[in-house]
Structures are given as structure tokens and as C-alpha cells.
Design goal:
The complex is a heterodimer of chains A (about 110) and B (about 110). Chain A is mainly beta and about 110 residues long. Chain A contains no helices and eleven strands. In chain A, strands 2, 4, 5, 6, 9, 10 and 11 form a seven-stranded mixed β-sheet that branches. A four-stranded antiparallel β-sheet of chain A has the order 1-3-8-7, with no helix packed on it. In chain B, a hairpin with a 2-residue loop joins strand 6 and strand 7. In chain B, strands 2, 4, 5, 9, 10 and 11 form a six-stranded mixed β-sheet that branches. Chain B has a five-stranded antiparallel β-sheet with strand order 1-3-8-7-6, with no helix packed on it. Chain B is mainly beta. Chain B is built from no helices and eleven strands. The chains are: A mainly beta (about 110), B mainly beta (about 110). Chains A and B meet through strand 4, strand 5 and strand 9 of A and strand 5 and strand 10 of B.
């Protein structure tokens, strides 16, 4: 059981470049989330999805876009990368409701130079 | 009202000692309070969680104490071990409202032999 798989693990982008962070889960979870983690700042929610075809903004959505065409996949798109987007990105999923807890992926460390 | 305040930012404990991390929340709609443990290079993993209908929950050496009237909860790690060295995040969630976890800023725990 793979859980939540994120790719790539590391990436260096130049300012203005674009990229997609991939996230796949095999637990048939309806809820999926993208967080970014910065030192001393905890985890901030970027976007989330409650099911295929449904997405919504979190606390820090500017500069990012998402799509959810299947239950399994929830890619995060960065357009026109900026140094402020240097961070560690985590994807997570949950079954929601009474099924407690998020399952997190192992993260993508992104540096924008 | 969406903030979760966590303290201390870092904690150094000797092996065998008690580690205590505190969190406070504002939103009275929160009804689920988990703690996540994160090792370097890994995603956060659910450690223990509590619902507001109980004041304490214990799992092995880990205990959550919950004070609903003060809107505070804490994690106690008894007989702390070097393997407990990690970053700990408290979180709060209004499960039937948004299902989004709001995280504290994290506490880096170091346990020395």
C-alpha cells in the first residue's frame, strides 16, 4: 500500500519557470490537500479538494493552481515561479467525516533561484 | 478565529524526562484535535488525537490533555527518548464543517541521552 506519493522529491526552478508537482493516493480518499511548510511557520493550506472535479482555495493560494480530474490524482501547478515559492510542499489525503487523520506524502523540496 | 497557537518553538529535554507542548485555539467550532509527528525529510504522521468530549487521552507514553473552557490542549511525552526527537505539530479541525486541518507552527523537540 503506497499511500500518498509525491514527485519529484527535489526541484530547482528559475524565476519565471513553471512546473507541476504530482500527487497520487491509492486509498480511495475523497479529500485531498496541498500544504506548504516554511521554517517556523507550520503548514499552510494552499488548495484542497473534496472530490473529483471540486477544488477550493486555502489560506495561501496565490501563484498556484490545481485540478482534480480523478479521485487518485491532485496535481499542483506553479506558474511563473517566484523566490517566495521556495518551500517544502506536502500533499495529503483523508477519508473525511468520522475517519480521522490525514495521510501525508513525503514532500517536494522546491527552490526558486 | 482560525489560528492555532503553539508553544514552545523548540524544546530540549534529557532522556527520561517529560516533554510538554502547548496549543491554544480560538474557533469554538473545532471538534477534533490531533497531534502530528514529523521526522526530518518526512511528511507529518498522525501521533494521537482527541475529541472535546473527553479531557485526556493516553496512548503509551503520549498523553493529550484537553481543557475545553480554556480552549487549550497539550501533548505530554513521558520518559522521553532520543527517538522522540522530531518536530511536533498540533492541529484543529471542524470535521463536519470544512474538514480542513489548521496547524500550529510546530515545536522542535530534541531529547539528549
Amino acid at each position: 500500500n503506497a499511500g500518498v506519493t509525491q514527485t519529484p522529491k527535489f526541484r530547482i526552478l528559475k524565476i519565471g519557470q513553471s512546473m507541476t508537482l504530482q500527487c497520487t493516493q491509492d486509498m480511495n480518499h475523497n479529500y485531498m490537500y496541498w500544504y506548504r511548510q516554511d521554517p517556523g511557520m507550520g503548514l499552510k493550506l494552499i488548495y484542497y479538494s473534496v472530490g473529483a472535479g471540486i477544488t477550493d482555495k486555502g489560506e495561501v493560494p496565490n501563484g498556484y493552481n490545481v485540478s482534480r480530474s480523478t479521485t487518485e490524482d491532485f496535481p499542483l501547478r506553479l506558474e511563473l515561479a517566484a523566490p517566495s515559492q521556495t518551500s517544502v510542499y506536502f500533499c495529503a489525503s483523508s477519508a473525511g467525516g468520522d475517519n480521522y487523520g490525514y495521510t501525508f506524502g513525503s514532500g517536494t523540496r522546491l527552490t526558486v533561484v | 478565529q482560525q489560528q492555532v497557537k503553539q508553544s514552545p518553538q523548540s524544546l530540549i529535554v534529557q532522556k527520561g524526562g517529560i516533554s510538554i507542548i502547548n496549543c491554544a485555539y480560538e474557533n469554538t467550532a473545532f471538534d477534533y484535535f490531533p497531534w502530528y509527528q514529523q521526522f526530518p525529510g518526512k511528511g507529518p504522521a498522525l501521533l494521537i488525537a482527541i475529541r472535546p468530549d473527553v479531557s485526556e487521552k493516553k496512548e503509551g507514553r503520549f498523553t493529550i490533555s484537553f481543557n475545553k473552557s480554556a480552549k487549550q490542549f497539550s501533548l505530554h511525552i513521558m520518559d522521553s527518548q532520543p527517538g522522540d526527537s522530531a518536530t511536533y505539530f498540533c492541529a484543529s479541525q471542524a470535521r463536519y464543517y470544512t474538514d480542513k486541518l489548521i496547524f500550529g507552527t510546530g515545536t522542535r523537540l530534541q531529547v539528549f541521552p
